[in-house]
Amino acid sequence: MVGPQDKDRIAPADAVKDLSGSTDNSQTKWSAWALRPIVLFGAAYMIVGVLHEFAHALTAYLLKVPFTLLHVGVNLDRAHGTLNQHAVIGVAGPVFALALGLLCWWAYRRAQQARSGLLSLYLAMFGMGTFFGNLISTSFVGDFSRAALAFQLPMPIRYGTSIVGALLLCALSFFIGSELRRWAPVGIGRAKAMIGMVALPVIVGTAIMLLVFLPMPFAFALGRFGEASFWIFGVVGALLSRKPPVESSQNLGLGWSDFAIFLIAFLVVRVMARGITFVP
Q1: pTM of the predicted model, to two decimals?
Q2: To pair with 89 at 20 to 30 A between CA atoms, which of 16, 19, 187, 262?
Q3: CA 62 to each of CA 1, 58, 105, 176, 276: distance values in angstroms, whole numbers, following the listed order
Q4: CA angle (229, 235, 241) in 5-degree steps
Q5: Which residues pair with 200 in a beta bridge?
Q6: Residue 103 in contact with residue 125, Cβ under 8 Å?
């Protein structure tokens, strides 16, 4: 039989139950799971951006075209190299980003239950998203635009490429948003999961990245806002997702490795901001 004193000892255990029926609500607190996505969003953004620019620089180096590598682009010496060489250098960046994105998606699918899965998912988004974003700019400015001019592509083809790029980026954002929903802890509602896994990382992460990449041309800043706007489809994907949560979604707390990855990427960006010049 359970006496009055025994009931008093049992009550605290019952008191910690939340509405979802869980006996431990520590994982449902914002501070326990909503900070890591912001840090990893910024880390993935910087990693893909840095490797994208390094791909440009490495291609220019192999073609012996003088350049200055910066955190927001690669300035080529227009007096050296052919128009086709410059086009190849321009295409190398987004093509490498696409390959990186696909590789990270493969890694995510292979080990999505691991703690590293969330970073792989953000890297996949920014890698493939960089390629699709450059497809969108084919009709205007950017890496693919210069290649289109070099190969004298007709404007209908360039506009069609831009439309295809926009559709692919919308679809990618929607799909990644539905995957991010899975990383919210069990018991978290759709709206709260969407805010914590998609909206906050995009808003806060983009603001932090604008500060990290200073100084930057005004057009570069506008481009970052344009990129962020496509995450609206990620918001919709997170709200409509019915995918089951991954097991490691219960362990979303920030770790030293997360800070280390962010810090290393930050330091590389700041070194690149000083400019690295190559003259063969």
Answers
A1: 0.88
A2: 262
A3: 82, 6, 29, 35, 16
A4: 150
A5: none
A6: no
